[in-house]
């Protein structure tokens, strides 16, 4: 009886997924770690400096040095903080940041030697985008819980700002994607990607949606010009004022994981995902095609990460009322208008 | 009082106005793109950083850094512990103790009196160079060397072991001498 159950269970699927999860964790955490170095290097370059260059060749070991330093630093928990929630905050933030990876299609299927299709996507959910929204918006819980549990007014203010900002921008973000969903006829990320084959990238058809979504992604990641939750000049460190050591590092690191995820989602939704023009004319074997598609997607992701950092070191921070005004009074009406226009166009001129 | 009209030194200044923004300006996007262009241009510009311990910035000849106590051509210490530098020092960073030259020490000290102890507190020193001006014996000079960082305050009190130049590695102060000469003219 038990034997039958064990045999009937799809063990190959499980091992496949576990292998993929392992690779994804290693790759994404590696990229997030090196994003910290990239951020410092890009900041330095844009300010005519050269940035960290002491650890290893041109500073290539800097993230490792930073990580070791964060682990070895003294851990402080404020006396009147809520101890359990104080520790839970950064854990939630990091876990949630990593959860979005589940639905991202990283490339075309690999065909293994025994003829099996190895899907480069953990779960192909039919409601892909909804899942990513649900998960991404949970990230603010990490910030809120951490900020509240610190028992510090600046942390609390930072947390309150983060949550209001998240509420304001989540709406516009969701609305801005409805035209994309209307065009693809599906919520699944793989279907949306397949819909943009060749040059039919969504950024060309929906530039307005792209601008709105990108701005909202900046706001969701709490990055400049929307880093109101951690304004040094007003709130010391914002929600992570009381944090130290690895818990602080988790918050800061989670931000880079978020940037990576957002870049991946933007690449998939607007920049054609793993598609690139001339994909059918190459005439390569499916496995090579799959490899190239992964490389193309990662190229797009790296470019988007660069744009995130580029913007961070160019634009100053918004004022709080400007932030709210932009979210509620400008983006939401624009999104609704965009949905209307797309609906009319799709109805009267299909394709 | 006469009315002073501000004379602009460059033509880069802009008059601030609080006029209503036009639609294009309200979009912000052209301005943001302009800003992005500027930062991207800087991204590829030549960097101004000097990698310090390997590359050192060249100092002006009048730069006033760490002191040196000079020796003459025969390697004898110039300083006679007259104390004029200590008197001149506005920060009271210099202390010394004089001693009499003994038989057989003629190769070490130029005159019959010398400084047995000569200490400068580098934390007190303001590098004004008045000690150099006060010295009648051509003994103390400020050089282009930088005072190292130390772990304790005590180790910033430099004694003769650091200040007096080594016989085999002389420190060139000819540029600096030229400058002081020019100044007195």
Could you explain the architecture of this structure?
The complex is a heterodimer of chains A (351) and B (185). With 351 residues, chain A is mainly α. Chain A has one domain (2-348). Helix content of chain A is 67%, strand content 1%. Chain A is built from 13 helices and 2 strands. Chain A has a two-stranded antiparallel sheet. Chain A starts with a helix and ends with a helix. Chain B is of the alpha+beta class and 185 residues long. Chain B has a domain at 67-184: Alpha-Beta Plaits (2-Layer Sandwich), CATH 3.30.70. In chain B, 24% of the residues lie in helices and 13% in strands. Chain B has 6 helices and 5 strands; from the N terminus they run H-H-E-H-E-E-H-E-E-H-H. The longest helix of chain B has 15 residues, at 29-43. The radius of gyration of chain B is 27 Å and the shape is elongated. The model of chain B has no long low-confidence stretch (mean pLDDT 83). Chains A and B meet through helix 2 of A and helix 2 of B.
Sum this structure up briefly.
The complex is a heterodimer of chains A (351) and B (185). Helices cover 67% and strands 1% of the residues of chain A.
Give structural attributes.
A: 351 residues, mainly alpha, 13 helices, B: 185 residues, alpha+beta, 6 helices
The largest contact between protein chains, plus residue counts on each side, is: A-B, 14 and 15 residues
Q: If you consult CATH, what is the topology of the domain at 67-184 in chain B?
A: Alpha-Beta Plaits
Biggest β-sheet strands, sense, barrel of chain B = 3 strands, antiparallel
Please report the total strand number of chain B as a whole number.
5
CATH architecture of the domain at 67-184 in chain B: 2-Layer Sandwich
Number of helical segments of chain A? 13
CATH class of the domain at 67-184 in chain B reads: Alpha Beta
| End-to-end Cα distance of chain A | 55 Å
Low-pLDDT stretches of chain A are none
- Quickly give the structural class of chain B: alpha+beta
Summarize the biggest pleated sheet of chain A: 2 strands, antiparallel
User: What best-fitting shape of chain B do the alpha-carbon axes yield?
Assistant: elongated
């Amino acid at each position: 009886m038990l034997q039958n159950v064990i045999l009937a269970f799809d063990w190959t699927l499980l091992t496949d997924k576990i292998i993929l999860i392992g690779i994804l964790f290693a790759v994404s955490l590696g990229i997030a770690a090196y994003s910290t170095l990239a951020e410092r290097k890009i900041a330095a370059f844009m300010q005519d400096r050269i940035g960290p260059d002491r650890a290893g060749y041109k500073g290539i070991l800097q993230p490792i040095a930073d990580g070791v330093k964060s682990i070895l630093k003294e851990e402080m928990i404020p006396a009147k903080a809520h101890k359990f929630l104080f520790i839970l905050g950064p854990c939630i933030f990091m876990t949630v940041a990593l959860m979005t990876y589940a639905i991202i299609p990283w490339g075309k299927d690999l065909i293994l030697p025994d003829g099996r299709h190895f899907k480069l996507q953990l779960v192909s959910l039919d409601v892909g985008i909804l899942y990513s929204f649900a998960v991404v918006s949970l990230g603010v819980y990490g910030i809120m819980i951490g900020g509240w549990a610190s028992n510090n007014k600046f942390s609390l203010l930072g947390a309150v700002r983060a949550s209001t900002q998240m509420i304001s921008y989540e709406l516009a973000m969701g609305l801005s994607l409805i035209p994309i969903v209307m065009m693809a006829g599906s919520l699944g990320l793989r279907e949306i990607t397949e819909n943009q084959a060749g040059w039919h990238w969504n950024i060309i058809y929906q530039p307005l949606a792209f601008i709105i979504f990108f701005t909202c992604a900046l706001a969701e990641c709490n990055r400049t010009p929307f880093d109101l939750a951690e304004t040094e000049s007003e709130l010391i460190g914002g929600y992570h004022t009381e944090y130290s050591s690895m818990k602080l590092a988790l918050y800061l690191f989670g931000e880079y994981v978020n940037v990576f995820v957002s870049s991946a989602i933007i690449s998939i939704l607007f920049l054609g995902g793993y598609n690139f023009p001339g994909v059918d004319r190459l005439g390569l074997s499916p496995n090579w095609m799959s490899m190239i598609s992964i490389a193309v997607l990662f190229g797009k992701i790296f470019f988007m990460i660069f744009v995130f950092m580029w913007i961070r070191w160019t634009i100053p921070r918004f004022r709080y009322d400007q932030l709210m005004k932009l979210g509620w009074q400008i983006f939401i009406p624009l999104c609704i208008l965009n949905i209307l226009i797309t609906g009319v166009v799709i109805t009267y001129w299909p394709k | 009082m006469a009315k002073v009209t501000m004379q602009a030194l460059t033509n880069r200044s802009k008059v601030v106005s609080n006029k209503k923004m036009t639609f294009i300006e309200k979009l912000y996007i052209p301005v943001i793109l302009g800003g992005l262009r500027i930062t991207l241009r800087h991204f590829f510009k030549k960097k101004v950083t000097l990698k310090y311990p390997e590359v050192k910035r060249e100092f002006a000849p009048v730069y006033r850094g760490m002191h040196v106590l000079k020796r003459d051509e025969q390697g004898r210490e110039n300083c006679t512990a007259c104390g004029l530098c200590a008197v001149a020092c506005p920060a009271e960073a210099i202390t010394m103790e004089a001693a009499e030259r003994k038989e057989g020490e003629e190769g070490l000290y130029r005159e019959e009196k010398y400084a047995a102890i000569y200490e400068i507190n580098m934390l007190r020193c303001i590098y004004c160079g008045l000690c150099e001006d006060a010295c009648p014996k051509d003994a103390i000079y400020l050089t282009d060397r930088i005072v190292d960082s130390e772990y304790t305050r005590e180790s910033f009190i430099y004694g003769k072991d650091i200040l007096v130049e080594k016989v085999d590695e002389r420190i060139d102060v000819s540029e600096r001498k030229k400058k002081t000469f020019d100044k007195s003219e």
